Amino acid sequence: MFIDGAYRVLYLDIKDGNGFLPVGCLESHSFNENTETIDSTTRDNAGWNSVRLTNQSYSISFNGLVLENDISFTKQTYYSLKTVKRNRTLIDWKVDDEDYGSGYIIDLSDENGIDENVSFSSELIGQGEPLMYIDYIYNNYYDRVIADSGSIESEKCLKNYIDSILWVHTMTQF
């Protein structure tokens, strides 16, 4: 089974007291990860280049349509994104209840075509490591089992079980 992108919603908490709200009129979003490298070589690789992995980073690019009303208490608008970017505010993000983290809006622009809806595009750069909800649950369960002097026989089996519970929970929301 494949995932329909229409059901993957980007939510932002811009620290204004409203909590996580979806980005209003979101058309698309993408999550990009990157690992920096340093060229290296060793005696064992016969002169062939090799690399050492160093810092990792991620970004979320997204775009949508600009709403007529600047202020909303049910969704993040272009106005709220401009305010957050200009104030250099660290915000929290999540995609559904699966992936989450923190970051800064570093790029924001709008496009104004004649006889077209005004649209915007934005980029959020991650601060720290992005987290996956399945790993959060697993790590908490693992810590509890170890604290109770237990053991985990199969990490893969347990993660598969947690994933099945999360999948059923996600499907019952629609």
Describe the structure.
It is a single chain. The protein is α+β, with helices and mostly antiparallel strands and about 170 residues long. It is built from 3 helices and 7 strands, in the order ββββαβββαα. It has a 7-stranded antiparallel β-sheet. The relative contact order is 0.15.
Blueprint (SSEs and pairs):
Layout: E1 10-13, E2 21-22, E3 26-40, E4 50-65, H1 78-87, E5 91-95, E6 99-111, E7 119-132, H2 133-147, H3 155-172
Antiparallel strand pairs: 1-2, 1-5, 3-4, 4-7, 5-6, 6-7
If you compute it from the alpha carbons, what radius of gyration comes out, rounded to the nearest whole angstrom? 21 Å
Number of strands: 7
Estimate the strand proportion: 35-45%
Q: What CATH architecture do you see?
A: Irregular
User: Which structural class is indicated by helix and strand composition?
Assistant: alpha+beta
- What is the approximate shape? globular
Write the CATH fold name: Factor Xa Inhibitor
Q: Extract low-pLDDT stretches.
A: none
Largest sheet: 7 strands, antiparallel
Order of helices and strands: EEEEHEEEHH
The spatial strand order of the largest sheet comes to: 2-1-5-6-7-4-3
- Work out the helicity level: 10-25%
The termini sit apart by: 17 Å
* Top-tier CATH class: Few Secondary Structures
Number of helices: 3
Number of separate structural domains: 1
**Mean residue pLDDT:** 87
